[in-house]
Amino acid sequence: xxxxxxxxxxxxxxxxxxxxxxxxxxxxxxxxxxxxxxxxxxxxxxxxxxxxxxxxxxxxxxxxxxxxxxxxxxxxxxxxxxxxxxxxxxxxxxxxxxxxxxxxxxxxxxxxxxxxxxxxxxxxxxxxxxxxxxxxxxxxxxxxxxxxxxxxxxxxxxxxxxxxxxxxxxxxxxxxxxxxxxxxxxxxxxxxxxxxxxxxxxxxxxxxxxxxxxxxxxxxxxxxxxxxxxxxxxxxxxxxxxxxxxxxxxxxxxxxxxxxxxxxxxxxxxxxxxxxxxxxxxxxxxxxxxxxxxxxxxxxxxxxxxxxxxxxxxxxxxxxxxxxxxxxxxxxxxxxxxxxxxxxxxxxxxxxxxxxxxxxxxxxxxxxxxxxxxxxxxxxxxxxxxxxxxxxxxxxxxxxxxxxxxxxxxxxxxxxxxxxxxxxxxxxxxxxxx
Length: 434
Hints:
Layout: E1 2-7, H1 14-24, H2 28-35, E2 43-52, E3 55-65, E4 71-73, E5 111-113, H3 114-123, H4 128-149, E6 157-159, H5 161-179, E7 184-187, E8 190-192, E9 196-199, E10 202-205, H6 209-218, E11 222-224, H7 234-243, E12 244-247, E13 253-262, E14 273-281, E15 291-302, H8 307-319, E16 324-332, E17 336-345, H9 350-360, E18 367-375, E19 377-385, E20 388-397, E21 400-406, H10 408-418, H11 422-433
Parallel strand pairs: 1-7, 7-12, 8-11
Antiparallel strand pairs: 1-14, 2-3, 3-4, 5-6, 9-10, 13-14, 15-17, 15-18, 16-17, 19-20, 20-21
Helix pairs in contact: 1-5, 2-5, 3-4, 4-5, 4-6, 4-7, 6-7, 10-11
C-alpha cells in the first residue's frame, strides 16, 4: 500500500513537514485554497526551492501581517512553537513569548484557546477527515499544555502569532496529507537534540515540556543525540503522534519519490531537513496494515452503587470525551454481586476520568492500565439506498473491506423520512456499501 515514511533524523516541525509535502508534489495553490476555508486572516504563505547544507528542498514559510508595519516574517524557525507557554525563541531573535498586540489582524492582540480553534475548524467547509484530524492533532498539543499548566485542555491558550502559525501548520499538514491521497504514515526513530530552549518563564531543557508530554502520551521512545539544538517542536511531535502508525527503520518500502522539507536552523551535526519518502510498501512486519495507538483503561470494582448513579455516570463520562464506558456483572468477595466499571480514554484524559470515578461513584480506588490497540483503516462514505442516502463507516484490512457499519443517526433519519423499518435501511446500506 502507499506509504509515507518520515525520516526524522534531524527532527520535525510543522513548516518542515509542509515543505516536504510540497516537495513530494502537493500543489501549493490547492493547499492555500483549502486553508482559506478557515476564514483565518493576517498571514500569507510562501514555498520556495532552496538548499540547506547543499541539499535541495522546499522551504515553507508563514508570513504574519502586523498592522502598520507590513509583513512580519515569522518564517518558522525550526525552534519555533506557539503553544500556551513554550513559545520558543526564533532564530531571527524573536521570542514568541512576547505580546504582538499591535494591529487588528486575525490572531493579533488576543489569544485563541483550544475550544475556539476547534470551533473554527468545525465551522469551516474543510473535509470531514481534515476537520477530524486537525482537531485531533490540536488535542494532543492542548492535552500536553493542559497537563503542564494544570488546566483543562479546552482552556489552553495559543497566544497571538502562535495561534495563526499553529493553525496553519496543523490544519495545513492535514490538508497536505489528504491532497497526497492519505497514505499510511510511518516515522523513523524519534531523535531529539540537547541543551536548553527559551520559554515564556525561562530556560527549559530539551526536549521542551510540551514535546515530551505529547510523545509520552503516545508512548513513543525518545533518543537524544549530540546536536545542541531543539530538533522536534510540539507541533512536529503532535503530527507524528497522530499520524505515524509506528516508529522504526525503513522496512519493505520501495521508494517512488524522495523529498526534503527545509528548516531554518544551521545545525552543527546534521542538515536541518526532514526527509520524506513516498512509496509502495510490499508487506508490513506484522503482515497487516492496521493502525495502532495507545490508550488508558481505568477499572474499578463496585458492590454498593445504585443503577441510577451508574447509568448517570456512563452518560456523563461519554459526554466528557471517554472513548467508551462499560460495566460488567462480577462476583466479589463475601459472595456479593457487583459490577466492574471500565473507562477507556486517551492518555492525557486519564487523570480527569480517575477523579470523575472517585468523585461520582462509590469507588475507593481505580486501576490504570496502558493498552495498545490495533484498529482497522477507517473510511466514511455516503451510499445511496432505495430509501435515501446513508452514511456508512468502512473498516479495511490490507485494502480489503472487512467491516461495514451504517451510522445509526443517518439510518434513523432515513427510516423516519421513508417510513420504513430501521432494519430495512440498515440492510440496504450494508448491501449498497458492498
